[in-house]
């Protein structure tokens, strides 16, 4: 494990996280908090932050990723899981010089999609 674009495996979000932590409400602050919480449970991202693979401002970069996701969800009702996967992959590669190939990007993208759908349901 390390920097320099090294691929690694990381613990992924638990299968039951969504059922315990995702309220069906339209409140933007709840959506933002849930995105931040989901990302804080993503082992790959947290490893990159802890080891400062994105430099001394790694924590800030992870917070910017959460903000970017929040704005994406706030701006559009039509988002695909592939778009989220691409955003996560690109962010890890460009911000942290890291590739994750353990399936966690896809899992986190699916969980984020669920958050987005729950938010949309709560807002109608």
Q: So how many helices?
A: 6
Number of E strands: 2
Question: Which spans have pLDDT < 50 for at least 5 consecutive residues?
Answer: 1-26
Q: Kindly state the mean pLDDT as a whole number?
A: 82
Bin the helical content: 55-70%
Instruction: Provide the β-strand percentage band.
Output: under 5%
Question: Main β-sheet, in a few words?
Answer: 2 strands, parallel
Distance between the termini: 45 Å
Shape, per Cα inertia axes:
globular
Radius of gyration: 14 Å
Keywords:
6 helices, mainly alpha, 124 residues
Description:
A two-stranded parallel sheet has the order 1-2. α2 packs across α4 and α5 (81-96) packs across α6. Helix content is 65%, strand content 3%. The protein has six helices and two strands.
Entry summary:
With 124 residues, the protein is mainly alpha-helical. The protein has helices spanning 17-21, 28-40, 43-50, 58-75, 81-96, 104-123, and strands at residues 7-8, 99-100.
Walk me through the topology.
Blueprint: E1 7-8, H1 17-21, H2 28-40, H3 43-50, H4 58-75, H5 81-96, E2 99-100, H6 104-123
């Amino acid at each position: 494990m390390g920097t320099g674009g090294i691929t690694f495996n990381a613990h992924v979000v638990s299968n039951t996280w969504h059922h315990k932590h995702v309220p069906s409400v339209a409140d933007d602050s709840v959506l933002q908090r849930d995105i931040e919480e989901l990302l804080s449970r993503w082992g790959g991202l947290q490893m990159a932050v802890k080891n400062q693979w994105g430099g001394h401002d790694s924590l800030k970069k992870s917070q910017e990723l959460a903000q970017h996701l929040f704005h994406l969800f706030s701006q559009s009702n039509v988002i695909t899981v592939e778009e989220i996967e691409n955003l996560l992959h690109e962010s890890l590669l460009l911000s942290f010089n890291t590739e994750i190939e353990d399936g966690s990007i896809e899992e986190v993208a699916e969980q984020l999609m669920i958050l987005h759908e729950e938010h949309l349901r709560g807002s109608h």
